């Protein structure tokens, strides 16, 4: 169970946040619930006593009429106010609250170290916090309001009962104290069982995702993977049933104690009998008091239940808010310079000296002793077998990771001396595992808003698409640059083939005003003619830029000024195509192998 101090601190953190963003709504909500609490006290105890005593003791109708009138006016006023507050004011204010929270989370997600995605614990924490955020801050305010309301009801009714019938109150206090303790024990057992169920639920959710999401649909239909997945699902289900069985006896006993022994038997039965004896036999209390205390005890019972329920919810929030706070407070390990250097605007030399890199959880380094000097406007190809470390090298060049050892310099300065945003701004990149976004074609290329009037920007995009060999396909699209991509928001959203999508990703790099183009496997999904066009366009588009591209097709790499051949994290050969062929090493072997393959094909 969480520490009490933590529960308070974390819930207060969230409450302060709510008060900062929507202070008026927070205050109005609390006042409304306090008024509802008072309403319960007045109606649940005082009014009943007044009305019954008026009929049985005073034989007067005036107090009854006054009470009924007051009740109606009070009820009508707060219900009308509640209608306005909760149907109109609250939805708008809650949207404002969610927007503020999500905006902060998205901003934090972008600033988060890229390396964090390799840390499953941290990544889960982020995804969990982000997915729970919607409505969570509002929940804390709702629970605070409920706490206020229940406290007013409990305190008001308990105080009134103490005055009206102190003997009966003793029974009530014993009953309520016992039920409070039992509820805490039940919550503990439920919490433990939830903790054990959580990993099993995650397993079940994974299976559901696999069976529903289109990403897995092809493999499911063309392999036997469905059977073991279903088997995992069944096993997780069986394990969940075991957990339920383990905690059930304790929970059943506690429920009987709570619901029957201390509620029905003690509070409803014995308490009722005592007060009935007082009114009928002893005549020590009036019928009005009898009706008021009996009803008061019932109201007290459910108000206390609400109170306990609310305390439990505060405890549950704690876990979420703690994760959220640690995510928000997390400081990026990749430091930004205090006095960043000015970023040069034209292509400059990129120099890597003795660069090594090990991924967080790996034992062995992925890159070792990399030395490279890329002159401004040079065209560089990086080649090598799968897993040689080519994409990792690109990620280091983009400063998505910092090198574990060695030094990367741009224009003679360590890349850590530039603001990472400015530095990355120098690169136009087509990633190997690019993503298309649910936005227009123009925005997918420009990667920012593109207005209808912005013809200059549209021309840049059209030109970039032409260079990426997409002009023919563009002219076939009715909506042209406005074509919506993906079916996320519209049934008419365009779905492109793998090669077409890759051309859009390449056009992004061409469209960006930058000094260095990085293309990771730019032609992997392209047909030979598109590949030929792309290579020509690449040279034409990048005349004034440095180009670094990774390719498995060595016919493409011939165009490069210099080729780096990588193997197991090291550069084993470098030079022009002719030099490497003369060297007759790994590159030449690979080249001949591919040429032979093409010849025999
Ligand atoms: N996020 C990661 N965490 C841990 N190890 C990783 C990660 N990404 C890559 N690796 C490991 O680093 C090695 C190099 O991967 P990298 O993607 O750089 O190779 P590559 O040369 O680009 O391969 P390919 O030609 O298949 O794209 C691989 O053995 C891979 O398992």
UniProtKB/TrEMBL annotation:
GO molecular function: ATP binding
Residues passing through the membrane, by range: 64-86, 152-178
Name the UniProt record assigns to this protein: ABC transporter ATP-binding protein
First-listed, main subcellular location of the protein, grouped into a coarse class: membrane
Phylogenetic placement of the source organism: Bacteria, Bacillati, Bacillota, Bacilli, Bacillales
Keyword Transmembrane: yes
The organism of origin for this protein: Paenibacillus glycanilyticus
Subcellular location(s) of the protein: Cell membrane
Coiled coil: none
Keywords, comma-separated and alphabetical: ATP-binding, Membrane, Nucleotide-binding, Transmembrane, Transmembrane helix
Record membrane topology: Multi-pass membrane protein
Domain ABC transporter intervals: 350-593
